Amino acid sequence: MSDDKKIGDKELAAISVSVILFSGLMFHWVAELISTLDLLELAYGTVKLFNNPLVF
Amino acid sequence: MFSTILSQYKTTLTVFLVLLVIVGLEVLQVRAAIYPSLLPAFEWLKNSTPLGYIGTTYGSIYATVQAMHLLAMGTLGGLVLTTDLRLLGVMFRSTPSEVISNGTHKAFKVALIVAVLTGIFCAAGVADKVYYMPVFWVKMLALAAGAAFVFLVKQPLLNSKPHSEINPWIIRGMAITSILVWFTVAASGRWIGFS
């Protein structure tokens, strides 16, 4: 790998922090989605997102 | 050899050291141990400070500061989207991304200061309520992470060299992460309002 293609310190830090933050936040929002679906299931008995809306 | 790596990758090693400390604190349940001791500070903020008094007594002042907080958050969101969508090459392609990221960063600092100051006032009025809200802590965590990301990682990299010399995937990764972090700050903020 030539010198100009080398990933420097700041680039490596940036991509590491980006991956960590992105993964953490996606984990958070997916967990929120799952708990929301659980709450909907508790309230309505069943949740069929892509099914006949008349089941509600 | 080791000292060469240490000096060459100082920022990266600091990032992993910070991460290690955070994981260590979580494993040792330090956060859970500190949490109850924060309640008196929140109660003091609401009951014994002018901020808490004004926030709970004068609705008009609270609404005005709340509006300023929302405007500052809206400005922050707009600046973040402008910068990051330019870095992703979605908009303002005719303007160099260096010009946009430098220009928006100055306004970003002002908007962040206004958002934090007005946010402290807004939280003071309902301090004993927000203390118990997990979503409030999510917002604070996302805000701290977002600010640290911008000031310690993103902007230093963008200012270090012409953007054309930075790996485009690193720039895209930073932009997407930045949008997600500030989206979390905004969404958690509105969730506090909803709760």
Q: Could you explain the architecture of this structure?
A:
Helix content of chain A is 64%, strand content 0%. Chain A is mainly α and 56 residues long. Chain A has one domain (8-55). The termini of chain A are far apart. Chain B has 195 residues and is an all-alpha fold. Chain B has helices at residues 2-8, 10-27, 30-47, 50-57, 59-87, 97-125, 127-130, 134-160, 168-194. In chain B, helix 3 (30-47) packs across helix 4, helix 4 (50-57) crosses helix 6 and helix 8 runs antiparallel to helix 9 (168-194). The mean pLDDT of chain B is 90. Chain A binds chain B through residues 4, 7, 9-22, 25-26, 28-29, and chain B through 8-12, 14-16, 19, 138, 142, 145, 149, 153-154, 156-157, 160, 165-167, 170, 173-174, 176-177, 180-181, 184.
Summarize the structure.
Chain A is an all-alpha fold.
List keywords for this structure.
heterodimer, A: 56 residues, mainly alpha, 64% helix, B: 195 residues, 86% helix
The helical percent of chain A reads: 55-70%
Structural class of chain B: mainly alpha
Flag low-confidence runs of chain B.
Answer: none
Number-wise, the strands of chain B total 0
Order of helices and strands of chain B: HHHHHHHHH
The beta-strand count of chain A equals 0
Largest sheet of chain A: none
Low-confidence stretches of chain A: none
Percent of sequence in beta strands of chain A? under 5%
